[in-house]
Amino acid sequence: MGFDLVSRVRLYKVLERIGCSPKQFDGSPSTPSETNRGVKQGCVQASNLFGIYFAAMLRHAFGGFREVCGDFRLNISLKKTNIMGINTQHPPNIHISNYQLEAVNEFTYLGSVVTNDLSLDTEIDRTGSASATFAELAKRVWENTKLTLTTKILVYKVSILSTLLYGCATWNLYSRQKKRLNIYNLRNQWKMLKIKWYDHITNNEALQQTSIPSIYTLLCQQCLRWLGHVCRMEDGRIPKDLLHGELNQGSRPRG
What we know:
Elements: E1 3-5, H1 8-17, H2 44-59, H3 65-71, E2 75-76, E3 82-83, E4 95-96, E5 99-100, E6 102-103, E7 106-109, E8 112-115, H4 127-136, H5 138-142, H6 149-164, H7 175-193, H8 203-210, H9 215-231, H10 238-244
Parallel strand pairs: 3-6
Antiparallel strand pairs: 1-2, 4-5, 7-8
Helix pairs in contact: 4-6, 6-7, 7-8
């Protein structure tokens, strides 16, 4: 769902309802001033303010979504709005104001790829972008004799591993997918260490030289870190309820 405009007047009213005071920090009311510009592109406050505004709108969305957006002065960008059906034989057909929304098989949300079959094969295909970054840094970093191995490892963790494993805390991978990621990681480390096949150095020895855990270990660490974060949440939070939730009836398949 894409939006082109948010009403500032209604945004200020929503902020007042949740307890944001219109006063300054010294306690005295501020002088009214006309606002002609919003937050800049990429500003942290932009996502926070829109999240608050959108959450308030959803509370009133008991009727038509289009009408509620109109009441909150939210202009829906129909060209930016796509729909996707999960495990459906026929794509959904939804119209808004005589405009048919485009049905897609996958879309990118916050850097993660969501597909209509919920497969992670497309998600881990980001090895292509990681490989492009690795190749761009070949002469500057990996083949640079003036840089120490410690510096190269730090660059590898920041530029390659962070891209490769982004969002992996919520992944549910198959063994073949983990193996694919692990092979890619080992191949890159062999290139950093300039190891050839005839050097007779095992993968474990290469990991010891770089002090980088295997992909299996990194995935496990990220999952455990996320589970610990969810368990520390207050009761009633949706992620915690989903983690400890059980089916009222029927049975859930294994895996």
